[in-house]
């Protein structure tokens, strides 16, 4: 006969399994650009990563574990990889690997997320804190929360100080001071002319590291998502 303790353990394990099953998230990563994009995904917790070449019209579907935090999806441009998946990208490169095992190098437009957080919420955003290389949409696959879009011609309009091949750098990369990097902690920095450049063109997106009030959004845990490069 099962003891109350064993029964409680069995019920708890069943609940955890049910939670994990119902709250894992599927991400459909779609390339609508007229050029090839090498999509990338990385998260340090739980450790996960990968990459895929996407020609125009192609989609990469990934399942992301419940409880994933600090997750990022981005696109890389002008890449050249050998048969072993080693090479280099002009923007968004991740240590010269097709299958990313870490974050990409600026500039790269980011879809960021933390799944199954307190109050059964996902936290999601588009970020230009690492600069901008490809227009992006980050949205739920159903109308359960807000569609986020950053689709402005930022590369063409990039300030001369931030211009770099294939993209528009974040100011912290060019000017590594607290004014632009916010390294001295909460409340240590404010919007700058450079961050306002990004914010005016992509009001849904983070423009500097402490831009939380206008840039961080929530969706119900268990939501599935689309990340679209060059959305219409």
UniProtKB/TrEMBL annotation:
Signal peptide span: 1-24
One Pfam family named in its UniProt record: Thaumatin
Top-level taxon: Eukaryota
Cystine bridges: 33-230, 79-89, 94-100, 145-219, 150-202, 158-168, 172-181, 182-189
The keyword NADP appears for this protein: no
InterPro entries associated with the record: Osmotin/thaumatin-like_sf (IPR037176), Thaumatin (IPR001938), Thaumatin_CS (IPR017949)
SMART domains in the cross-refs: THN
Coiled coil residues, start to end: none
Keyword Amino-acid biosynthesis carried by entry: no
Keywords carried by this UniProt record: Disulfide bond, Signal
Family from the record: Belongs to the thaumatin family.
PANTHER family assigned: OS03G0233200 PROTEIN
Name of the molecule in the record: Thaumatin-like protein
Species this chain originates from: Fraxinus pennsylvanica
């Amino acid at each position: 006969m099962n003891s109350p303790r064993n029964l409680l353990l069995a019920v708890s394990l069943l609940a955890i399994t049910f939670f994990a099953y119902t709250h894992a998230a599927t991400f459909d990563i779609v390339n609508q650009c007229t050029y090839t994009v090498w999509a990338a995904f990385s998260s340090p917790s739980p450790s996960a990563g990968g990459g895929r070449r996407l020609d125009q019209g192609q989609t990469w579907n990934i399942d992301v574990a419940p409880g994933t935090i600090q997750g990022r999806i981005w696109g890389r441009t002008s890449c050249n990889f050998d048969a072993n998946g080693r090479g280099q990208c002009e923007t968004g490169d991740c240590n010269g690997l097709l299958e990313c095992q870490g974050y990409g190098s600026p500039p790269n437009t980011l879809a960021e997320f933390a799944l199954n957080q307190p109050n059964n919420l996902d936290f999601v955003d588009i970020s230009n804190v690492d600069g901008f290389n490809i227009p992006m949409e980050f949205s739920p696959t159903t109308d359960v929360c807000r569609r986020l879009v950053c689709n402005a011609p930022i590369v063409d309009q990039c300030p001369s100080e931030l211009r770099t091949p294939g993209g528009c750098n974040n100011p912290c990369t060019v000017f590594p001071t607290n004014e632009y990097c916010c390294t001295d902690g909460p409340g240590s920095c404010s919007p700058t002319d450079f961050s306002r450049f990004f914010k005016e063109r992509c009001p849904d997106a983070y423009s500097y590291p402490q831009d939380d009030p206008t840039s961080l959004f929530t969706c119900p845990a268990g939501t599935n998502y689309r990340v679209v490069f060059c959305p219409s």
